[in-house]
Structure formats: structure tokens, C-alpha cells
Amino acid sequence: MKGAQIFVECLKREGVKVIFGYPGGAVLPLCDVLYDSGIRFILTRHEQGAAHAADGFARSSGKVGVCLATSGPGATNLVTGIATAYMDSVPIVAITGQVATHLIGNDAFQEVDITGITRPITKHNYLIKDVNEIPRVVREAFYIAKTGRPGPVLIDFPVDIQRKDGEFYWPEKVEIRSYKPKYEGHPLQIKKAWELIKSSKRPVLIAGGGVIISNASEELKKFLEKTNIPVAFTLLGLGSIDVEWEYSLGMPGMHGTKYANFAISEADLLISIGCRFDDRVTGKIDEFAPNAKIIHVDIDPSAISKNVEVDIPIVGDAKLVLKKLNEVAEKIDISDWLKKIKEWKETHPLKYEKNGFKPQYIIEKISEYTKGDAIICTEVGQNQMWTAQYYKFKKPRSLITSGGLGTMGFGFPAAIGAKVANPDKIVIDIAGDGSIQMNIQELATAVYNKVPVKVFILNNCYLGMVRQWQQLFYNRRYAFTCLKGGQPDFVKLAESYGAIGYRVTNEKDFNEILPKVLEEKEKVVFVDCRIEPEENVFPMVPAGASLTEILDGLA
Amino acid sequence: MKKNNKNQSHIISVTVENRFGVLARIAGLFSARGYNIDSLSVAETEDPSISRMIIVVKGDEKILEQIYKQLNKLIDVIKVQDLTQEEHIERELALIKVNTQSFNERQEVMQLVSIFRGKIVDVGKKTLTIEISGVDSKIRAMLDLLKTFGIKEVIRTGKIAITREFK
User: Fold this and answer.
1) Could you give the 3-state DSSP secondary structure of residue A263?
2) Which pTM was predicted?
3) Do A124 and B73 touch (CB under 8 A)?
4) From the first residue on, what is the mean pLDDT of each consecutive set of 10 residues in chain A (555 residues)?
5) End-to-end alpha-carbon separation of chain B, Å?
6) With A112 labelled, which of A135, A207, A315, A398 sits at a CA distance of 20 to 30 A?
7) How far is B17 from chain A (nearest CA, A)?
8) Is the dihedral of CA A367, A265, A320, B67 positive or negative?
9) What is the pLDDT of residues B74-91, one digit of tens each?
């Protein structure tokens, strides 16, 4: 067998059904084998789209997403997508072509040291140097991507090795002596944690992306229902359990609910599960949860005590640790605290002024219509924060968003990936007029491959979040954030690709088209929502301020 | 890891897979997170599939803890050990080319070298090249004494270290 054939056979053994990619000179032999391999190849219109689509596929399904690009510029175009996946612990395998081995290091045509470039943004990467190591490398790559704290793995595959003859073999087991992820939390630490929880008076649990990655929603729900401990969800933790649960605090942090930030600031105990205390969550770190002891459950030891000092670290898988906790968990006496939480929730609800056509209203209506059953992707900026605030997430893997890296242009291709993985679900991208233009070329991918995602563009003709900061902190000097000049007609644009386009400027028209958009089974739909141009995301904790210094912008 | 003083020097032994790119991964980790490497030495071990790196770094407890965890996170890293926490032997090697203008100077240098249990490894018309190994302070002392003759060139290795069998 040729190297390319061995490689594709390995992908099949790993259960790969779909690859998002873009061909080129250094992957010709691979593409030739893939052509009639039975693996679905989704040709994107830019390699970045392929990486984000693989990411959306992985986040929405829990499986490893696969993307492919050629050497040189193909490979570098994957970089933003790989970094996005790395920051949010998403298992993807990125395959890149490389120039022939005898040319490596010669500055050959379309040569780039992609293993060097991606070293800090991959969990691990490989340059295949021998046709006989292909099965081991592919096996290890998938294993590393999906185990422990998941992450992207890149395989750089020189074109001459794709053509070389070799033997196929399949290593049944993966043995990497230097990589042994730890899943079981230490029983003594778990015991100590429960002792601390039991004696706490004002506990708050923070559920992060780790809860969703480890499929721990059931266990979390059980734990919360037993103990009634109020829960806040980080951006990537939204959907861990129903955000409308009685003691749910919604999202904390910079654009979090006031009651989540109040609760964290007054808590005497924080139980963080699969959250890494990002600065967007903590605000000013010295004033974060000043009265609280911290229990930190994370599968990655390096996430523990990195940003905040932790009292009880538990290295382990969120699901397994919660299972152990549930064995001992019981009702705890925190009725005064729960009363206070309820008061906060009543007196400081999320709110916006209902004058004009508001983005928050759009999200609320989409939320009502889909009842938390859709997969919601977002771009980055105001669209992302309004979605996080106003969509009532109920289920894990229902929010696909670039949290750590904050990648504009992520949502649309990620939605394509998510829809490919979940053809029966309604998949929506909540976009801004800025970010949608960053990967707008994927309209062709969605239309041609019949991936009927729905895109709502919250169009304010601004890079809204940056404009908001300029308004609040830079004296309304809107440097380079107005997108009015040169903005395309999104309706005509969608139509020119063969998608459906709508434009709405008020609530009434929006409510009229909403069912049509979401019930459309065949076609891609773009909805250009002309929202209030200077609407802001509130509440807001300015960068570097403590969680109690909240701007709410309301008169 | 035990408590450390601020900015204390640590000798970290990192056992890694002997593969290309591993050194770059480790060096990249330090630079990306803003940690400084004071010295580094790498070589194959008794098992040719494994290399050992001895890295000397300065940092407080928090930085050291992160270095330790981040190193362990790399797939190619098999083991990380802070030798400063244990009984250990450390050595450095220096090659020193020193000016010797006269017979007397030459005699004097040779005497010093023998006191320090070094070796003369090369002789030129006006220079002697000395090999000396030992702990950092011994090498510094030797360099200090040789300064008066005029040092033409010094090459020093990074620190290497090994734990003591009897603890």
C-alpha cells in the first residue's frame, strides 16, 4: 500500500466519517485516495473555515473533528482555527501536506515549518518521516486529541511519503509511556472537599467547559439538586444544566449577571469544576471571591493554582469526581444564602430598555422558539455576549462559541461543522455584521454541501463591542469601528450564493419570518437584522475592575 | 514541590523522549511563558531512546510550580524532578585559555591547575588551555585566580546534576 492509502485506512479505523478541507499540491496523493474512500469530504472555501468547521463538529458531537490542508499557506491558514481549538480544549486532528522530505529545510515552494509554528497551539504535533510510522502516528494523534484535557493535534505529512510503499498494520493499543492522563480524583481530596462543602454557609459552584467536555451534566444536576448549591456557568459551561434552574446564577464575569458576580464576591466557598479562572471570569484577581475558600476540580494539573490560589485541588475528570461526590452528597443547610440569592435574582435581573429593535429581543425570541433544543453558534463580540445572556441554554453542547481565543469568523464555519454532525438539529449562528464578513466565503460551502444553517446577523454597522469600549472608555472616538462604508447587501449576497436572504428592521417583521427561517429544511438562510446601532452589552465589569464594580448603563 | 524562597536557583532534571523537536518544545515553553533559562544541558542517557535535560532556572514557588506542571504537560516529557529538593551532586565543566607570557607565569598557572585538580589540555606558545570541572563556586574561584594572567577565552557548560544514592 502507498502511504496515502495507509493513512486513509487509519482514518477509517479511527471512525472518521467527515473531513473538512482544501486540496493543494502537497496533499494530492491523499486527496486522490480520499476521492473514493467513502469518507465525506467537505470542501470549504478557505482553510480557516475547514479548521473551525472541524472544531464545530467536535464540540457539538464530542467526537474528534478532522481538517486537511496543503503545505505552506494551506497550513498557515489553519493556524487560527487550531489556536481556537487549543484555547477551548477541543479535540481536532489537523492534517497538513508537507513538501517532499529531501526538500524540507530548503525553503522549497509552499514550504513552511508548520510543526514549529503550531508547537505552542497544539497539544502535540507530528512530522511523519517514515511510511512505516503512519499507523502509530495516526493512532497516537487521535488518542492524544481526545483523552485527558482534549486539544488539537497536527500531523504534517510529506508528499513523498504519501507516495511511498509501506505495510499497513493496526496497533490495537496506544502506549505512550510519557502520557498517562489521570481521570480519578484522589479519594482523600474528594473527602476533604465534601467536608468543606458541608460546613460552608455561602457556597457557589462554577461550572466550566470541562463539565461539558467530560459529559458530566447528569452528575452535576444530581449534585446540585441534592445540595441546592447555586451554580454559575462560564461561557463555555453554559448548557451544563438548564440555566433556568431555581438556583442558577447564569454567567459570571465581565458581562455576567449581577447576581452571579454578587454571589461569587460574597461566597465563603467556590467549587470550580472544569473552569480555569480566565480573567474574563475573575475580573481583578486580587479582589476575586475575597472571602471564599476554593475547591478546584480540573483534569489539567497546570490549570490549578495558575490564576487563583486553591485550597483543595482535585486533579481528575469532572464526571468521575462528581460521581464520587454524589456518593456522599446530601442536603446542606444554606437556606439563608439561598434566600439572599433569590432576592438578588429578583432585584437585579438581566434587563434592557425596550425601545427600538433590540438584539436581546431577537435572542429571546429565538430562545423561545427553539426551547433550548437548537445548537447555537456565535461569532465574537456583542453578538456572543447577548447570546450568552439571553438564550436559555438547557443542554450540553448547545452553545458553540470561541471562548478563550475569541475568534471572529468562528461561528459560521463552526455552525456548518455542527450541522454536519447533527443533521437533525436546528443549527443557528448568531453573528455580527463584522464577524460574519470574516468567513463569509463559507456560504458556498454551506449551500453546495446542503448544510442548511441559519445565520442571524445582528447588524449595527459597527464592530459593536470595540465601539462600546470606545464609547465608554475612549470618549466616543470610534476609531476604525464603523462598517457602514462598504457593507454588502447581505440579502443579495446570500441570494447570489443560492441561499435565502431576509432583512428585518422591527419586531413585527422579525416575528413574522422567524418560524419560516427556523422551519426551512433545505436551504441556508441569512437574516439581516438591522438592530439599534448603539446598543451596548450590560451589565459590564470593566477590564481589570473587581466583580462588584458593575456598569449597567441603564438610567 | 516544597516551599522555596523567592528567585532561588533550581536544578530541574527533565527526562524526555529522545526525538527531534523535543528541545524546541521545552525551550518554547519557557519563552512563551516568560521564564528564563539560566543554563541547559542535554544528552542521551543510558537508554538511547531517552534524553535527559538539566535546566537551571530561577523563580519563586509559584513559577516553579507552573514550570513543573507545564513541563509535565508536554507529551514527550517522561519525568520532571527538582534536584535542588534532594541530595545531589552537581558539576560544571569549563575550558579556559589563559595567557602565559613567561616561564614563571606558566609554572604558576600549572601549580594552580594542579591545586584545583584541573588539567592542561593544550599548550600554545603564549597560552595554556585548562580543563576544570566542579561546582560553580570552584570554577568561579579558578577563573578569579587566572584573571591576573589574562584570560583569552572561557567556555563553560551548563550545570549537570545527579541524585545521591544514599539519602
Assistant:
1) helix
2) 0.95
3) no
4) 98 98 98 98 98 98 98 98 98 98 96 97 97 98 98 98 97 94 95 97 98 98 97 98 97 96 97 95 94 96 91 97 97 97 96 95 98 97 98 98 98 98 98 98 98 98 97 96 96 98 98 98 98 96 93 71
5) 18
6) A135
7) 8
8) positive
9) 999 999 999 998 999 999
Containing H/E element for A160?
helix A159-163
The type of residue at A239 is G
pLDDT above 70 as % of chain B: 96
| Residues found in chain B | 167
Q: 432576592: which residue's cell?
A: A343
Nearest Cα to Cα of residue A274 among A245, A297, A240, A292: A297
Question: In the 8-state DSSP scheme, what is residue B36?
Answer: P
CB contact under 8 A, A116 and B72: no
Q: Mark out the alpha helices in A302-430 (DSSP H runs).
A: 318-328, 335-347, 359-370, 382-390, 411-421
> Tell me, what amino acid is at B98?
V
Q: Is A460 exposed, middle or buried (0-12, 13-18, 19+ CB in 10 A)?
A: buried
Report the distance separating Cα B73 and Cα A301, nearest Å: 8
pLDDT of residue A220: 98
Amino acid making up residue B83: L
Nearest Cα to Cα of residue A350 among A539, A220, A203? A539
CA distance A309 to A320: 23
Report the side by side order of strands in the sheet with B50-59: B37-44, B50-59, B8-17, B77-82
User: Whose grid coordinates read 525551550?
Assistant: B27
Q: For cell 511523519, what's the residue?
A: A128
- Alpha carbon A346 to its chain's center: 30
Is B124 an interface residue toward A (CB < 8 Å)? Answer: no
DSSP letter at A174?
A: -
- Which triple of cell numbers denotes residue A328? 456522599
Number of H helices, E strands in chain B: 4, 9
| Min Cα–Cα distance to chain A from B125, Å | 43
Q: How far apart are CA A136 and CA A434, in angstroms?
A: 43
The C-alpha cell at A542 is 470593566
ipTM above 0.95, yes or no: no
Interface membership of B25 toward A (CB under 8 Å): yes
User: A312-315 and B37-44 as β-strands: parallel, antiparallel, unpaired?
Assistant: unpaired
Q: Quick one: closest CA in A to B30, which residue?
A: A120
